[in-house]
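Exercise 3.2. Students should predict the tertiary structure of the chain below and write it as structure tokens, then compare their answer with the key that follows.

Predict this chain's 3D structure.
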Amino acid sequence: MKDPGKREDDGKEKAVADGLAPSGVAEQKLMGLADSLYRQFQEGIVPHISLPSRTKANIEFSSKDDVWVYGDQETVRSVKTVRGAKTLLKTVHLSELLIKEHLRNNRGSTLREIYYISENWDIAKFHEQAESDRLIEDLEIVTALHREDFHVRPEEDGAAVFGPLRLKEKTRRGEKEMHCQDDVGEAGYQIPFNVDNIKFLSHDAKMVMAIETGGMYARLIENGFDQEHNCILVHIKGQPARSTRRFIKRLNAELGLPVVVFTDGDPWSYRIFASIAYGAIKSAHLSEHLVTPSARFLGVQPSDIVDYNLSTDKLTDKDLQALRSELTDPRFANPYWDKQIRLQLDLKKKAEQQAFAGKGLDYVTRTYLPDRLSEMGII
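Answer key:
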């Protein structure tokens, strides 16, 4: 079994070395934000916070990190308007919650719970969860931390993993060590919301395959694809959660494993790949932490629909609109995606992963995947 070696220090580990626990760092950053607003008020400056504009027009490629990040366009949250004043008031209430209830008591809340907690904040309460989610993201940006540092977790479960990997997870009840084939059921190991509590111990893997659908994930396990090809299978459950993207990123960066992404053949699935390989627009401030720039799209490609004569469905008007939008999305601005998207617009068809079952239950693991992975130079 291969030893992944020692992890490189990041900013959080440096802070610990400087004598501050992660919760202390988070509290310090949040208090610094409050102090900044108070100083502005004392100095006669209209209290405000400047944030990068989170739009498609304001993402640019960082050649340094090979990821998409926010550009120079900014949005200012200011008390000059009633709306802006309410937003800053909500930000202060949220910061107080995170400091007093989470960080000082070593407790946490889900994103959904935070929305409901605000019911007690009078005019500062959130009108919908999307509003509280955005403010959590704002705090991540202004503090240069992650919501996990504030003990905030998502509502959705993490992805499932099955393959030749041994790891150790730090939990509230102590450390647990397990092998992601021998010590788990067929559903696999469930990734926790804070992936940085995991330590990779050893592995026999040659690659990582991120899989969109549960049906295909189960098919590959049943057919023994993980054993035959020494492959770590990750069921990403549709649009991948942050923890899933972080887990894949760490497998690639720390273990040096190539990553391929296997999804349905439609515009929404291509965006799933983009979130793993290029980053998502709403979380571009976390690209360096979450994105795997070397990840490659395996399929289902529009060209596969033709080459393998797959069963298809007709593209809807929304599908067509999404594909045209992707032609102007900077994350898809390369010859490969231009060719594939234009082909699909001509075909006006889409295909699911399970379409390969029409050629037999073993076809995807005996023919398609080996052929495609060989074509990509992975096996």
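Discussion points: The radius of gyration is 22 Å. The mean pLDDT is 85.
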